[in-house]
Each structure stands twice: as structure tokens, then as C-alpha cells.
Amino acid sequence: MRLMFFRRERPKTVTFSDRLENLRQAGFTVASLPGGASRVVRGVCAVDIRESNAMADVSGRAGILMGSEIGVLVDGGYQKWFQTPGGKKKPALADDLKALHDFEEDLKQGLGQTSLYNEALGTVSTLYLYDRVQDRDGGVPKRAWEN
After folding, report:
1. DSSP 3-state assignment of 138?
2. Which of 97, 122, 113 is nearest to 45 (CA)?
3. Domain residues for 36?
4. Is position 90 within any domain?
5. CA-to-CA distance for 49 and 36, rounded, in angstroms?
6. How many domains does the chain contain in total?
7. Closest CA to 106 of 15, 41, 52, 51
8. Closest CA to 46 of 5, 86, 106, 90
9. CA-CA distance, 15 to 8, in Å (whole number)?
10. 43 three-class SS
11. Rg (CA), the chain
């Protein structure tokens, strides 16, 4: 009688370098930035990521490359646009939004992250700047719920 032992494969610990290599194989360009971050780019879309406990920590939301900066999506209520930290603005066109959505979904898959249902439905804005200026109309009587 012959006994057979089945061994389970040991789980492989995926390193940050492995995750970056997965992104390269998925068609992304990965470049190192000063300060230890890496910039992941595909087409006009980009995001900066850092290593955090062997996981990829996305520093900010993905956006559109505008020069050397990444413009994030801003929703003004009446229009969407991309805005860089330096203040440059660019209107968000339908092709940009589609490219950004595909970029974010493929990035999550390449990094082994979970894709959330509400984010998988469409592009999510980073900032929401609706017209809500306090006391803009002046002379508005005090509301009952305000003291």
C-alpha cells in the first residue's frame, strides 16, 4: 500500500516590485520619482504610487498628465475639468473620462486591489465644487433651524 501526501503550495508573498512588474506587463509605463514614489502612466492618464508594507499605496487619485503634473478630475456641478496642483485647468472631454475610468480599473487589477462597485460604474471626481457660497444673496432672513 502506497501512501500519498499532498502538499499545498506555499503562498507566495507578492512584493511591491512584483506589483510594478505586473503593471508593466499590463501595458503601463512605470518610472521612479524622487522621494521613493513611482509614476504609473498609460496614454494620457497617470497616478503616483508608493510602497507601504509591500503594498501599493496610491498617493492621490489618478488623473490626466498636464506637463509634469497630474490633473485630477473636479466636478463643478455644471462642468467637469481636470486641475493640477499648480492651478492649470483643462475641460474634461468624454474621451478623457473613458480613458481615465479604464486606466483606474486596469490599475486596480494590475495591483491586485479590489474594484468597488460604485467606482466601477463610472469615473469618480476627486473634488466637488458646487456653487454654495454662504449668504451669497445677502438679506436672506435667518432660517428657523439657525440660532
Report:
1. coil
2. 97
3. 16-128
4. yes
5. 9
6. 1
7. 41
8. 106
9. 21
10. coil
11. 22
